[in-house]
Here is the input.
Amino acid sequence: MADPLTPQVSDRICAHMNDDHAEAVLLYARIFGQTPQATAARMESIDTEGMNLTADVAGQPTPVRVSFEQPLQTSEDAHHTLIDMVKQARQQAQAAGAS
Here is the structure.
């Protein structure tokens, strides 16, 4: 059974994303956070409505909020949403690079 999105679950998700999926977090900031000039990003927290990131923009830490299309309830919802979002972000980044 999936865990509810508590602060402890948020911490676990953030640690995993920052340690193992830094490229995805950067794409979230660039594409969904409308910060295309970001050179790095960290996921600070995730809640039912969205995620809070800190992006490196021109050497400055910049807070970025990315909202979800649908509210999340559980860690499983977060897992599926984050995977779907990185797929969308990669497609958008690829399309932008082709134009």
